[in-house]
Amino acid sequence: MRNFIEKVEKNEHLQYEEMIEASRLMFDEATELQTIADFLIALSKKGETANEVAALATVMKSFALKLNEPAGNYMDNCGTGGDGLKSFNISTTSAFVLAGAGASVAKHGNRKISSAAGSSDVLEALGIDTTISSEASMDLLAREGLTFLYAPSVHPKLKRIGQVRQQIGKPTIFNLIGPLTNPIELAAQYTGINRPDFTMEYATVLQMLGRERAIIVCGALGMDEASLAGKNSFVLVDKGDLIPFTLTPEDVGLRAAPVTAIRGGDAFENAKIMRSVLQGERSPFFDTVIFNAGVGLYANAMVGTIQEGVKLAADSILSGKALAKLESVIDFSNNARKQEVV
According to its UniProt record, which cofactors does this protein need (predicted)? Predict the structure, then answer.
């Protein structure tokens, strides 16, 4: 490991195979925590590359729990988080909208890290148990076309890394790879990052990981979602092509709004916001969700344009289908919990 640290400290990028080896060493319990910290800090100072991110994601996914998912074409809409803008749980709300529109969603998520409420926190506030067994989680996916994968449960080897990240206290390469390590094979993906300078690199990573179709966004003000607050930068991964483009909310028929209009709170406050959106209450919260769900539907090739995606997302909510998905998942979770207790 020391050789890799020295190379990175000289501002030299690691080749893909070198990063594969370094990543395996990071997950090896014989490697000292301080050595892992030194490596992550050096990598962060140098600046990560597509090869390095893709290699780490590949190794981490290889250690993930095997889920035996039912046959299907699945997508994820999890972002990296870390934008510090204190928005409500946009991608979690959008997951119900996507499923209501007919997409099959396996959403990767975690508890709060940089926000007041992470995906798992708000789901639990809604009455959804994110720690149900993997068998129950896959049963939910088969029944409802939607499931939530709690990262610490599906990535057991992350525990030691978590200690190191806490010790460092600053973003590392692990802040980039959450959306890349879903243990389920994804046909499509919509994800966001808070680094406008890295969108094309991130698109390259998704291409390297085998995504035939995906969209990456870095929103206005560095939001890891499409934002109503201005111009959003995207890259479409379409088989062999990487296509950058920009969109404002007005481009898809939505009104601009400041980031302050979509501020969230704790898990219970965000659960109330989610319910208000899924019940069809028009607001910047609603428009932000249909904007992002619309992009997700386009990423999943269910519509021909993002504008069509926004309309289909609005219909998923206004028809009651998205809310019905939420209620079905809550009911399933309650039944699964009772069966596990018995």
Answer: Mg(2+)
